[in-house]
Amino acid sequence: MQCTYLLLAAVTSFIVLDIQVYRYTGIYLFWAMKVSLITYLVIFGLLPIIFHYSYTIQKKILFLNFIQWPLNVDFTKPDLVGMKGTRNFYLKTHQQVKIGIWQILPQSLLNDTTIITDDDYESVLSNAKQPIFLYMHGNSGNRASGHRVQLYQLFQTLDYHVICFDYRGYGDSEEAELSEINVVTDSKYILEWLLKKVNGSAPIFVWGHSLGTGVSTHVLALLASENIQPAGLFLESPFNNMAEELSEHPLSQIFKHLPWFHWMIVEPFYDNHLRFESDKHIKNIQCPVMILHAEDDNVIPISLGEKLYEAAVSYYGNNTNRIQFTRIDSSYGFGHKYICHYKELPTIITSFVENIHKNQTD
């Protein structure tokens, strides 16, 4: 009998415990569902609405200039990030915005002990015989970022001069209102300064990466209206326009399925003139263009680089003297930033430069 009572007591205890667990589980599930619903409404409702109406947030997301990497760079000492034969200096644009710039000597001048002062560097630039590359970087970071430094070093090894700079609000350049037209205006000023400084003594090539491809094509389109063009343009990991880049960016895939995505995310950029419509600007560019894109680029899909190429072909025809596309296999793993590691890149660059020189002298 005692065993029976013990058994009944045990069964009763399990039933009570089960009811309590069920009750607590039900409460937990209720709160979990409530938190999930609130989170969903914030992420897919409130935040997109704030984004839609905030020009400041749109600019922050586009330019990412608040991400400074590497940290605590002393731009006056470029040798600390591996750049030998480099001077730091500043120019003020027509809008009186101070822009931080590096001038990097070609390999053949690295051991020239007569090049010390700013005047020496400027004299070398004015009398340059080797090609000169003006580099326009992408968003985030600064001119000392690792993958950028590696590309400068490649240019240097190829015996090219390099001019690289930070847009307003990046690096040690002055904080000023960021917008497409302001960044393009600053960059146009630097290119015009360089063209005037060199004065035809050496060919000048523009190299744009990522967002810098949108900046450089816009700059060259504006200069073309004044009958001014550099020798050539390299576009590394480009997009055709900002509207499609926003739609194809990995982060956008979270929201892209929502019916209001285009109105909420894409249209504000267009309305606020953050368009970077390279597929329209490229039709006005008269110099030869080389597009380089890695198949495994997860930031700007190669399909957007192909669309830009197709837009150029529709204007120029399939003329390899005007527009070329280099597709880099995904097996190399270069992604968005490291085409500079491609073993064929030096040959691609030198061949492009030499062909332009040959065509100009024929």
Mean pLDDT, to the nearest integer, reads 88
Order of helices and strands: HHEEHEHEHEHEHHHEHEH
DSSP helix count? 11
- Distance between the ends: 114 Å
Percent of residues in helices = 40-55%
What's the story with the biggest beta sheet? 8 strands, mixed
| Gross morphology | globular
* SS elements, strand count: 8
Strand content: 5-15%
Please compute the radius of gyration using only Cα atoms.
Answer: 27 Å
Going across the biggest sheet, name each strand in turn: 1-2-4-3-5-6-7-8
- What structural class results from the helix and strand content? alpha/beta
Low-confidence spans: 1-23
List the helices and strands and how they pair.
Blueprint: H1 2-53, H2 55-63, E1 86-92, E2 98-104, H3 118-126, E3 132-136, H4 146-157, E4 161-165, H5 180-198, E5 204-209, H6 211-224, E6 232-236, H7 242-248, H8 261-271, H9 278-281, E7 289-294, H10 302-316, E8 323-328, H11 345-361
Parallel strand pairs: 3-4, 3-5, 5-6, 6-7, 7-8
Antiparallel strand pairs: 1-2, 2-4
What does this structure look like?
- The protein is 47% helix and 13% strand.
- It is α/β, with parallel strands linked by helices.
- The protein has an eight-stranded mixed beta sheet, sandwiched between helices.
- Strand 3, helix 4 (146-157) and strand 4 form a beta-alpha-beta unit.
- Helix 1 (2-53) runs parallel beside helix 8, helix 5 (180-198) packs across helix 6 and helix 7 packs antiparallel against helix 8 (261-271).
- The longest helix is centred in the N-terminal third of the chain and has 52 residues, at 2-53.
- The termini are far apart.
- Residues 1-23 have low confidence and may be disordered.
